[in-house]
Automatic annotation (TrEMBL):
<dbReference type="Pfam" id="PF22997">
    <property type="entry name" value="CHS4"/>
</dbReference>
<feature type="compositionally biased region" description="Pro residues">
    <location>
        <begin position="1008"/>
        <end position="1033"/>
    </location>
</feature>
<dbReference type="GO" id="GO:0030428">
    <property type="term" value="C:cell septum"/>
</dbReference>
<keyword id="KW-1003">Cell membrane</keyword>
<keyword id="KW-0808">Transferase</keyword>
<feature type="region of interest" description="Disordered">
    <location>
        <begin position="1"/>
        <end position="39"/>
    </location>
</feature>
<feature type="region of interest" description="Disordered">
    <location>
        <begin position="916"/>
        <end position="1058"/>
    </location>
</feature>
<keyword id="KW-0325">Glycoprotein</keyword>
<feature type="transmembrane region" description="Helical">
    <location>
        <begin position="88"/>
        <end position="112"/>
    </location>
</feature>
<keyword id="KW-0472">Membrane</keyword>
<feature type="compositionally biased region" description="Low complexity">
    <location>
        <begin position="1034"/>
        <end position="1058"/>
    </location>
</feature>
<protein>
    <recommendedName>
        <fullName>chitin synthase</fullName>
        <ecNumber>2.4.1.16</ecNumber>
    </recommendedName>
</protein>
<dbReference type="InterPro" id="IPR054295">
    <property type="entry name" value="CHS4-like_dom"/>
</dbReference>
<feature type="transmembrane region" description="Helical">
    <location>
        <begin position="324"/>
        <end position="351"/>
    </location>
</feature>
<keyword id="KW-0328">Glycosyltransferase</keyword>
<dbReference type="InterPro" id="IPR004835">
    <property type="entry name" value="Chitin_synth"/>
</dbReference>
<dbReference type="Pfam" id="PF03142">
    <property type="entry name" value="Chitin_synth_2"/>
</dbReference>
Amino acid sequence: MSGRPSGVGNRPGGPGVRRGATLSRGKTLSRPDRFQTPETMFKKRKENEPASCWVVCSRITTCWALPPFMRMCGIHDKPVQQAWREKVTLCVIIMFIGGMVAFLTIGFSSILCPENQRQGAQSFLRYESTAANGQFGINGFTYDFTQGISTYPQGFNYTATKPGGDISNLFPKSTPSCKDLSSAAARFNNCDLQIGGCGYNFTIGRDGAAMYQHFKILPSAQRQRAGYDWNQMANSELRNYMVIDGNVLNLDRYMRRHPRALPGDEIDFVIRTVLNSGYPQGGRDATKLFFRRDSLKRSATCMVEQFGAGFIDKATPGCFAADLYMYVSLTVVLGIVVSRFIMATLFDWFLSAKLARPPPKNKVHTMASAASSSSTVVAPGPGAVAAGAAAGAGGAALSRTPTGASIAGGNVQELHTILLVTCYSEGESSLRTTIESLAATEYPDNKKLLFIICDGIITGSGNDRSTPDICASLMELDPAFDSEPTPQSYIAVAAGSKQHNRAKVYAGYFRWKNRRVPTVLIVKCGNEEEHEKPKAGNRGKRDSQLILMNFFSRVTYNDRMTPLDYELFRKIQHLMQVTPDRFEIVLMVDADTKVYPSSLRLLINCINNDPLIMGLCGETKIANKRQSWVTAIQVFEYYISHHLGKGFESVFGGVTCLPGCFCMYRLKARKGDDWIPIITKPEIVQEYAQNVVETLHQKNLLLLGEDRFLTTLMLRNFPHRKMMFMPQAICKTVVPDEFNVLLSQRRRWINSTIHNLLELVLVRNLCGTFCFSMQFVILMELIGTVVLPVAMVLMLIMIVQLSTITFTTIVQAVPLILLVFVLTMPAILILITTRKLIYISWMFIYLLALPVWNFILPLYAYWHFDDFSWGETRKVAGEAKGEAHGNADGIFDASKVPLKRWDDYEKARVRQVKRVERAERQRAQGSPYARSQGAPSVYTDDNESDMLSDLGPQQMNYDYSGRQLMGPPLAGNQGRPPMMGMGGSSPRFGPPSPNLGAPMGGGWNNGPPSPGGRPGGPPSPSMGGPMMPPPISPGGMRRNRNGPNDGPGSPDSPRSQH
């Protein structure tokens, strides 16, 4: 699309720019995407609106904490009191969830299958088993007869009794449940002399005290019970045994005493019916016969007391259900763990390698390939727009004409990329390392722009200079600009008067070896009231990111700009020789990060290979891993969170957190012949720029983990696009080396993770369905995060229990096998992915620190849900405790930050240039109407004066196309060539340029002046004055001004309706 003023002819010798020509622009991007925007997370509560359900719930939960009591404890403000109540409520909910997990893990199985009903070698000694050698049963419990006793009980034959056999009939029975019953079985006396009698008059209780007192015989080592199998009931020696409700009854002496049926005795009839059953291997189970008849139910307990010999070593229904639940739970948990492992491995081996390949040429979509957005610096010539004639054309303009090669897909063009570095209190070494690593990336220097933002006038602890001074000293400032720029206003993310902030924009280059990378340095210096205060201009990392996001969003939509935005636009255009709308990608890094040379290229390859990718990150490694034990325990944690966590999430295209120290986002994405704003989408920018956060949930989202919150916003607004992880792209960063700093950092990360996952779990249209969906993965991750302390305690309990067990079967060892498998499986992942054995040693260091990761850090974080400070993470010299950039101070005056469209700023600048030139010509000709340099212009109305007051001296006096100086040379810079049409030497404009042409008639000639033209003479009136501004809007959009209300900034513009 052409961005030329109306009236520019395309015929040879055609007319030039008509006087009064209007600016025109192409189609305005008004509908970024047809996906319905999700509901905002920050609804402002109305004054008369009733309290939300969450607030009511928190007040009910903490009803015991009355306001006077809280004031006595130092909590005075109502918002702080409410935050404390919400924190306590969240802790109660986490305790409830942890209790449920503990109950389902331990308690539920104990209820279904009590200890006395459990089967297996831990509870039973099986009849005739090898383990039962020397063990014999009395009243269902086993005793060890191998302890060197001198005598056995009277009537006991050691060799004739099988291991685990019953010898209960050698002692009298205690049968309190049989007193009121009249059946022969209830009145049976096992010590009757007719059937062998008993040699003793004392009974044997369950504690076995009598056995030890009289025979020095102790119960078996684990107090196991005598167990029988169903099939063993068919043995000939057990022909008089039967079962009632799992209890094995020995009826040998009863059948000897009553060899024939007793008429009229119902219990005797049942006993003989069961014993004469045709299927003895079925167990001779009399349970149904006794419990189906009311007359026999009372006799069941009596029969067990009278004839009990042991128990059936088979699972009861409750134990069967408990075992089924345990195996299903283990299958689900193990399935999730194994599937995460397998999918992460597949991603690392196959998917990531495919994404990292150099893309085919037909997949590279750049701004240059779009006819609606392509920009080249051209100038209107005598009959055509000549791309190379800008240097000699006074009416130079930026035209959005596409190049044939780009449309045809001839040459693969690189994506213009912003390299954003956010600084705070880092030292020179860290800053230099980061910037040098970005300059050294394998990417063309003319396609990347270093975008450094210093968050206030900050001097880090241990630094001798402020961070802005350090950054400025690393740059080679462009001589076209003043070495001390004018601060420009913008609207910051803060409360009260701090919403008005100002920033200086330094433009220049960063030299590294033989490379010269364009660089923009933004120094937030604060408003007028902050000059004498510490940390002037500091507004936080989110505000630094929003400077970039707001700028490119306004450029994309041709929205109204702040003075800072306009300053950025002009200086970026000067440095890069393209307008900022050509940029498509932003790489965000922290100022203590070192990026590997190939990382930027690999990330760009991913962007080109998959147009649905809207954001991605690389692997972050630790630079100071051996500095202390605190850094050592973090090495494997960083590794596993990337290769296992993010690798698994990348299969679904839904990485839930792109780390702010090293991540990349699309500014906008290609969609057919149009562009879709991504991170510059107005809804994302507006929600991310919330400066009034009231609830605890909102503060945990915005104030503690801005990186994760930005990822959450992206997934909520673009659920069908992808957030990916690229393991081949690597950076190194410095991590906390002191435990108190680690504690503060993880407090912020854990709390931010919980609150962001709460938002993401509600997004229904993420990838997948049911258990195979990203939503289910997020839910599992949320539950796993909040139950970390409980899981740690349960794991320790299980380890203690397993250490006390003697394993006799493989089934007993299953829990231990699973625990070892889950803990050591990452070692397999290490061997498959990195093949670096050193990480296995880091893994064991991490395992030793599991109580720190899974218990200490989460508990500390949960109890500090209402702490929104950064704590010990970043220390600044002279910083007071509790001081924060978000603290409200005064009232914001919106009139201090004017908002105007780009063309309004540009027209004001051009009018000022024309007035200056006109005044110079009149002064040179001795006109009485010539005004002094500092006097107000007679041609400037009030509205134009207001516009000009918003422009700094550089903006009014400098030609940002990089050709001429519009005013006196700035301090510390050399003079530049004069403007076109201003021949001869001038003390104001400097010596003339030998390459400048002269105006000819209605156009500009790039050759020698015509005979009728006077070199150095004034420009033709038909040209509208020298140095016509680039007559295009930042977004490459055209709109004809056919009516009085259709001018720039009119109310009917698409963006003004947002």
